[in-house]
Amino acid sequence: MEALAHAQISRHAWKRFVERWEGERPLCYRQELQRLMEAAWEEDLGYGATVRMIKNGFSPARYFTTEGWRFVTDEEVSKILTIERSYLGYKKPNRKMRDKKRYGKR
Predict the structure, then answer these.
(1) Beta strand 79-85 with 61-66: parallel, antiparallel or unpaired?
(2) Residue 43 class from Cβ within 10 Å (0-12 exposed, 13-18 middle, 19+ buried)?
(3) Domain coordinates of the chain in residue numbers?
(4) pLDDT tens digits along 48-62
């Protein structure tokens, strides 16, 4: 997709991409990232985008996705702010499990 072709990648986004890579390491992370960016299409998160905008200090963002990856960009698509895994079947952990992890077993 042309939209991400000219976007700058922030240091934070680069670190998150390498950190969140699963499986065997690619020969070149940069080439793999370029391939993913070219294949990405814009995604409408609906209500989720509104919630994320509120949590991020009311700064609007656009979302692009491909092959289980999501690219979060600024509104002008000039900079990739972060790169995350976009799991389709993602389910929020229940409150008790989060508390156990945070405060130890209760």
Answers:
(1) unpaired
(2) middle
(3) 2-103
(4) 766 666 666 667 788
User: What three-state secondary structure class fits 80?
Assistant: strand
Calpha distance 2→42 (Å, rounded): 11
pTM listed for this prediction:
0.72
- State what percent of residues in the chain have pLDDT above 70: 68
C-alpha–C-alpha distance, residues 60 and 101, integer Å: 32
The pLDDT of residue 55: 60
Q: Among the residues of the chain, which ranges form H helices?
A: 11-19, 29-39, 47-55, 95-103
Are the C-beta atoms of 71 and 40 separated by less than 8 Å? yes
| Calpha distance 17→86 (Å, rounded) | 12
Dihedral of the alpha carbons of 31, 69, 64, 18, in degrees to the nearest 10:
-50
CB 8 within 8 A of CB 80: yes
